[in-house]
Amino acid sequence: MAFWRWKLHWQILLGLVLGGLLGYLTAAWALSSAKAAGDVTAAGDIVVGRFDFMIYKLIGDMFLNALKLIIVPLVTSSIVLAVATLAAKGGFRRLGVKTLFYYLCTSTLAILIGLTLINLMDPGFSSDGSGILVGQDLGAFAEEAEQLEEKTGGKTASDFLDVFREMIPPNLFGAAVGGNLLGLIVASMVAGYFLTRLAGDLGSLLQRVVKAIYELSLAVTDLVLKFAPIGVGMLVAATVAEQYARLGPEDRFNEFFGGIVLFSLTTLAALILHFVVVMSLILLFIARVNPLRHYKAMAPALMTAFSTASSSATLPVTIECVEERAGVSNKTASFVLPLGATVNMDGTALYECVAAIFVCQALGIDLTFGQQFMVVVVALLTSVGVAGVPSASLVAIVVILQQVQNQLGGGMDLVAALPILLVFDRPLDMCRTAVNIFSDSVGAVTIARTEGETGLLTTEEPPEPGEVGPKLD
Fold first, then answer.
1. What CA–CA distances, in Å, run from 159 to 12, 147, 191?
2. Whether the Cβ atoms of residue 237 and residue 56 lie closer than 8 Å to each other
3. Where would you tag: which of 51, 108, 176, 392 has the fewest CB atoms within 10 A of its CB?
4. At how many degrees (to 10) do helices 346-362 and 257-273 cross?
């Protein structure tokens, strides 16, 4: 069968594999060139300067920009329509409470899973019980320290209050240009609620205009998805090439590198446990749908999230998969998913907790139950506000460490050890983004079930995006 006749998720998977292979070959060539020149630390710079790497970045960024292009019209129009429908039927408050309750429960579960595994594995402690960073020179991570300072410099807990400030944007166009998705969501909710209050034909006319914008946004999404295999492949190629070239020279790291690897594996295991076990149980016993079919239905969105590492950029694909492949009604998906992309961050919340405790372990600090409980609470709160802060998870971890540091006293600088997390941050970021968007999709299906929708994944084969799926109005 011709490649272009394959199901979309198989096309994207092939793009991921070929992109990873391209990136590996590019990095391997750069490493060999750097070794021949006697400077293996230059491998990363060689990769970035290569013409083929720049082509990877160009194509990947074009695909990412195309996804971001759709976000504002799709999110605003879908929420206006969803809230207008809910307001007319009196279900707006009920759906909102269900959505927030689901987000709170799943984020808490994710954090507790991470907390359990990090305490079982203890990746920050060496075999003699001391921290892997105690007495070690962190000079090998000078580059990561500079990156961390650039991304998180000057950030404190007060920065997360901005998430409430951004809920009411002073300028809608400014919010759209600045990517303030939360502000646009709140403004769209207000507009949708009052749209049904307009008298005469004016309300009906405006509703048809918004509906036309929504349908047009979906049509553009279908077009962008046709190029998803290429775009995803190039994003992965660029990521693999740059990361492998920078991590390739093993002599750059000291003996504590094994602890960082164990931390990464522990985080990955926690993410997989939440992704596979917890989400499957929710689908099976609460939503009462076949988990395997839902995983298959969400495959294009999962692969897009993995390659872009952006919940917001993946949102158009998530909406399309949930509505057309998972069979959730437009009014439910349009309300739950945009809100989830901004405040429901299961993977991020899990990572914040695990990372903060690992840094403490690496410095030889064994946190008490009360201190770990504080980490859980702060991780849960900061995971809600990460959408409005650049390099959000890193900023959140800085805030958590600052709170732990205040409790410990003694002048110890916990944040100084944070650069070691950047070694594997990008691949872990890709994984936790996939967990974030999958939790959003499970939430949409679960809430749709509680709203009485019965047409969820009733077909043997989930339809492709652009086809008519088994959804209810």
1. 37, 19, 28
2. yes
3. 51
4. 150
Give tens-digit pLDDT for 162-208.
667 888 889 988 988 887 888 898 999 999 989 888 877 888 899 99
Would you say residue 470 lies in a domain?
A: no
User: How many separate domains does the chain show?
Assistant: 1
Q: Indicate the DSSP class of residue 464.
A: P
Q: Report helix, strand or coil for 473.
A: coil
* Residue 193 belongs to domain spanning: 3-450
Question: So what's the pLDDT on residue 4?
Answer: 66
C-alpha to C-alpha distances, 147 to 86, 391, 412, nearest whole angstrom: 45, 11, 21
Q: Does residue 98 register a pLDDT over 50?
A: yes
Which residues is 96 bridged to in the sheet?
none
Q: What is the C-alpha separation between 36 and 21, in angstroms, rounded?
A: 23
d(CA 2, CA 254): 49
Burial of 406 (0-12, 13-18, 19+ CB in 10 A): exposed
Cβ pair 255, 126 in contact under 8 A: no
Q: DSSP letter string over 156-213?
A: -GGGGGHHHHTTS-S-HHHHHHHT-HHHHHHHHHHHHHHHTT--THHHHHHHHHHHHH
330 vs 324: CA distance, rounded Å: 9
CB atoms within 10 A of CB 22: 20
Tell me whether residue 266 is in a domain: yes
Instruction: Please give the backbone phi and psi of residue 133, each rounded to the nearest 5 degrees, phi first.
Output: -100, -5
3-state secondary structure of 432: helix
What pLDDT was estimated at residue 285? 94
- Give the tens place of pLDDT for each residue, 50-83: 888 999 999 999 999 999 999 999 989 999 998 8
CATH code of the domain in which 105 resides: 1.10.3860.10
DSSP 123: T
Q: Which amino acid is at 169?
A: P
Please say whether the beta carbons of 243 and 47 come within 8 A.
Answer: no
Strand partners, 230: none
Task: Work out the percent of the chain whose per-residue pLDDT is above 90.
Answer: 45
Amino acid at 417: A
Helix (H/G/I), strand (E/B), else coil: 227: coil
Cα(first)–Cα(last) distance of the chain, in Å? 36
**Vertex 129: Cα angle to 125 and 133 (nearest 5):** 45
pLDDT in tens, 208-219: 999 999 999 999
Inter-residue contact 316 to 221 (CB < 8 Å) = yes
Interhelix angle 228-247/299-308, nearest 10 degrees: 40
89: Cβ contacts below 8 Å, ≥ 6 apart: none
How far is Cα 180 from Cα 167, in angstroms, rounded to an integer? Answer: 8
Phi, psi of 411 (to 5 degrees): 75, 15
Beta-carbon neighbour count of residue 213 at 10 Å?
17
